[in-house]
Structure formats: structure tokens, C-alpha cells
Sequence to fold (255 residues):
Amino acid sequence: MNFYIVELLLIGSVVLGGAIVSYLNATNKNQYIKLALAFSGGFLLAVIFQHLLPELYGAHQGHAHHAHEALPVFQVGVFILLGFLVQLVLEYFSGGIEHGHVHVHKGQAMPWTLFISLSVHSVIEGIPLGNMLQIGIEPESQVPFNSSFLWGIIFHQVPVAIALMTLLLATKIKRSAAWMILLAFGLMTPIGVLLGLAITTEQLGMNVQLILAVVVGMFLHISTTIIFETTENHKFNLLKLLSILLGSGLALGLF
Ligand SMILES: [Zn+2]
Ligand SMILES: [Zn+2]
Fold:
């Protein structure tokens, strides 16, 4: 996958989310958006269990073209846990917008702490994508590109952008300013990709793939929270269950 295509898809997913709110007037309370969120949760969860965890625990060892450095399995576990806890702390400041959850009050002030913690989350999740795109390094240390990981980020980026734009349009700031802030958010994951392109295991002093382990921990938190929150008051909702299954099924079927 080409670097420019990855960056365009990432920015495009945020613009799409913003346009859905700005032009279609659909907020994060819309039934279809909630189904899309459930879909993204199922998709992410399947990508984690089917691709990312096996890869972190060395499933690709031995494949000649995939043979990258072996990761110490105990470290992998610690970094996954670390990612889960980092996301927990970030959501304390962001109110859970990473899993599409916002509380909108008309005329509220611009929530900068939310914006900053969401941005930190987004930069971190871009770094492993950049690692996967590094070219010109020896094939043995190349992290295999994982398109399921890219689509997992994209599918979860759209509902996050919808939630953020819903919030931004409810504040007192102008529509044009809301778009500027949304676009600034849209640049965060691409910036993470650039960082990931630049840093190597040698510079970091630890295997760069461990950052993927952190992101997997963050995604575990996000996807399970999405799925948990799709059942309002523990009421069974067939459509949402089907959306989760569709998301998981698509992730398993496509990649
Ligand atoms: Zn929530
Ligand atoms: Zn994210």
C-alpha cells in the first residue's frame, strides 16, 4: 500500500464524518450512525483477534517473506496492557469520544482537553501504520503491512469524526472554525504515520512493533466499549447485533 493513499484515506475518513454531520445533519444520535459504530466495533475486534494478536505473538515467524524480528512474548503482553490503561486514562479526559461517545450541550465551550486527548490517541495509532510503510530497510526487519489494521482505523475514524463534528457544531464557534478543528484532528493519525516512518528500532531503543502492541491494547478497550455500549440498558437490539456480526464477518472474510 502506497504512503499517499494511506494518508488520503485517513484524512478522507475524517472529512466524510464531518460532511455527514455538516451537510446531512445526522448527529451521533442517529440510528444509522449507531449501527455504523456497532459495525466498526465488531470489525476492530475481529482484526485484533484474527490478525494483530497472532502477529504480535509471532504467527508470521518462519514465513520467508514475513520473517521479521521475533518479539519477546512477555513484553508484548505488558505493552498491550499498557495500551489498554493509556486508553482508559485518555478517556477520562476525552469523555470517550474515541468510542463515539459524546455529551453535547448547546452553546458549550470548545472542549480543548477532549481535543488534545483524542489527538494523542490518534497520533499513537498512526505510528504502527508508518512502521509498516517503511521501505528501504532490510526485509528481515520490515514489519508486514497489514491492510486490516488500516481499515480498522478508518472504520473507527468515521464515527469519531461524526461525534467530534456533532460536538463542534454545538459549541459557539463558527462552522468554518469547526471545520478547521476537525481537519486538524484529521491530520493527527497522518502525523503518527509520518512519525512511524521516521523512527526505527535502533533509534527507539526497543522494538518498534511494541507500539503496535500498545495500539492493540487501546483498540481492545475501544472495541469492547463500543460493543458494551450498543446495548442500552442491557436491552437486546437485533439490528446492532447484526451490525457487529457484519463488521466481524467482513474483517474475517476480507483479510
Ligand atoms: Zn462511552
Ligand atoms: Zn482511533
Summary: Residues 31-56 form the longest helix (26 residues).
